[in-house]
Design goal:
By secondary structure, the chain is an all-alpha fold. The chain is built from 4 helices and no strands. It is elongated, with a radius of gyration of 17 Å.
Length: 89
């Protein structure tokens, strides 16, 4: 599982970092942390934060997070009925 997350992070990180080639890796990671609103120490930032920020970077602020898109419902009533089992897929 860790290899999969590492590969995903590298695939997302490489094209993003190529847009800022003048920054070293730590500077670029700090830039990503600042963009994502992370306030803690860089060493405390999780790989999930990096992955989701890189996936969502440059998209509309109201866009659905890719991992949650499968469970996304436009209508609250439909979501509630689906969660209660009234509506089945």
């Amino acid at each position: 599982m860790k290899c999969q997350r590492l590969n995903e992070l590298i695939e997302l990180l490489q094209p993003a970092w190529q847009q800022d080639p003048d920054l070293n890796l730590l500077q670029f990671l700090q830039k990503l942390a600042d963009e994502s609103g992370f306030k803690g120490a860089l060493a405390e930032m999780t790989d999930d934060t990096l992955i989701y920020h890189l996936k969502m970077r440059g998209t509309d602020k109201s866009a659905v997070i890719p991992g949650l898109k499968k469970d996304y419902e436009e209508d609250f009533k439909t979501a509630l009925l689906r969660a209660r089992g009234v509506i089945k897929d």
